[in-house]
Amino acid sequence: MQASATATEIASISRRYLWMATSVFFLDLAITVVFMALSGSWLNAWRSVTIGIALLLVVNWLVARWLFTPIRRYLAGEIPFEAIQRRLTQLPLLSARTTGILALLVWAFRLSVPWWVDYDGTALPTPTIADFVVALIVLSVFYFTFAYFVVSDYLAQLCDFIFRHYGENLSLFFGSFMVKLLVALIVISIGPLAAILTELYSYEGERLQFEILVDIATAVMGVAISAYFIVRSLLLPLRVLSRAMGRVAAGDLSLRVPVTSNDEVGEVTGRFNNMVEGLRERERIRETFGRYVDESVASAILHREGQGVLAGETREATVLFTDIAGFTTIAEYLSPDRLVLALNEYLETVLAPIRAHGGVVNTFIGDGLFASFNMPLACDGHAAAAVRAAIDIQRAVGSRTFGEDGVALATRIGISTGSVIGGSVGAGQRMSFTLLGDTVNLASRLEELNKQHGTRILVSESTCTACNGEFAFAALGSMTVRGRSDAVAIFSVDPNDQEKPS
Q1: Which residues pair with 368 in a beta bridge?
Q2: For residue 423, is it within any domain?
Q3: At 88, which helix (H) or strand (E)?
Q4: Are residues 314 and 196 located together in one domain of the fold?
């Protein structure tokens, strides 16, 4: 769980915004100094600097402070995130709009000074009407763009701060990546070019050289600084998203990325988070599903392209049933919680050999289970695999006790090989994967016949034949089993004599 920001952290992130919102003043100061140095009109410096301080620093600071007030209240826990989300996503535009208007007023004042101020013979360069209008437009748009991308860069830091401390992400997007890119290109390339073309049509001789020199010096300095923030604002969210995609591709589904952009990139980042959440939920479902259905069956169902079921099919397979001898008696003297503990330990012991030999546990039946080999997952030599699993089960179960009371549990196993029908059955939203057919019934009956013969593993003739002499089977003759009219040949396997003697 995220820890809310401290008062010191909130004050620091607030001051950072005020600094970013008013940073245009320092760019303006540098441009003013360049103009004064090239024109030699230092007597006008106090007017130019004063109007810049008054509007671009003081007024801009006051407006920026007002714009940030709701966000600061949210950070302090006074209002919910929903109340400030629109202000948050529009913060670069609102800040830039203020800066653009103030820049228009500042430069209208500065450029008009030569028309109404007498400098005792030291004249300021007087602009033409065309130069005056174009300069106002270009400089205002340039200051607007600079402020927009500087605050956009700050917005990425602020959104990351909110995400880390409050766990909230933007879900409203008012910006446009294409418009941002278009404005940036216009300001960086067309703006200086328009100013220079206006000078060419407005002045001649030394005045033309002076004006072009001022334009170039201003453009080089301003564009270089602006380009830094433009690149950061546009590319940083893409880099964050790209790195996140790499981590998810590597299997990290715990990831959640902060949305640090108010445009389509931010929207894509939000959808990326939703996608990862969906993948995480799918993985959680698969893991949970695998606790109730064999994990391999769950994976097969989930990978059937959204069908959610396994279609019915008939295949040659081997079926294995297990049961605990005398479980009813054991259940009489063990408390329910201790009985369940012992049973869970026992089933975990039984599961391991089945999975190790390629089997699939279809369902648990009380104190026993029902497993299959070669259905629904392919298993080469499925009959021998099932017998090996049964032998390993007997060895594992017979060598230990289970639960806090150290209960010894004897296992009976029946195995049969033949044609089985497998698929998802059920109704509505309740589905189950199961196997049907005579082979399944015979395996169940063979498990029961262990009581009569005092054996631990009984297999059908079909299983014995399919093992191709790999095990030392003992023939017990033919028996009539419940549910069958014909007698069936049955065979036992001694867990301590796995290999057939030569």
Answers
A1: 365
A2: yes
A3: helix 85-116
A4: no
End-of-domain residue from the set 186, 214, 241? 241
pLDDT digits (tens, 9 = 90+) for 21-35: 999 899 888 888 877
* Residue among 26, 89, 96, 86 nearest 64 (CA): 96
Please report which confidence band the pLDDT of residue 57 belongs to, taking 50, 70 and 90 as the band edges. Answer: very high
Single-letter amino acid code for the residue at 458? L
Q: Write the pLDDT tens digit of every residue in 274-319.
A: 887 777 777 766 565 455 455 555 565 555 544 444 556 788 999 9
Query: Which residue bears the tokens 């279809």?
Result: 362
CATH number at residue 443: 3.30.70.1230
**Residue 39 buriedness (CB in 10 A; 0-12 / 13-18 / 19+):** middle
Residues making up the chain, counted from first to last? 502
| Total number of domains in the chain | 2
Same domain, 326 and 213: no
97 and 183 housed in the same domain: yes
Beta pairing class for 359-365 and 473-480: unpaired
Q: For tokens 């019915």, what's the residue?
A: 312
Is the residue at 136 inside a domain? yes
Domain interval for residue 434? 306-493
Instruction: For 285-296, give the secondary structure using H, E and C.
Output: HHHHHHHHCCHH
Same domain, 351 and 443: yes
Say yes or no: 202 and 326 in one domain: no
Could you report the per-residue pLDDT of 374-429, keeping only the tens digit for each?
A: 888 888 899 999 999 999 999 998 888 888 878 888 899 999 999 998 876 665 55
Would you say 403 and 393 are in contact if contact means Cβ atoms under 8 Å apart? no
Q: Which of 161, 169, 175, 173 is nearest to 81 (CA)?
A: 169
Is the same domain home to 109 and 213? yes
Looking from the CA of 422 toward its CB, the CA atoms found within 13 Å total 26
CB-based contacts of 375, cutoff 8 Å, min separation 6: 315, 317, 360, 420, 422, 435
DSSP 166-230: H----------HHHHHHHHHIIIIIHHHHHHHHHHHH--HHHHHHHHHHHHHHHHHHHHHHHHHH
Tell the residue number behind the tokens 């929207």, with chain if given: 267
Take residue 199 and report the two structure tokens written for it: 């000078």
Map 437-465 to HEC letters.
CHHHHHHHHHHHHHHHHCCCEEEEHHHHH
Q: Does any domain span residue 277?
A: no
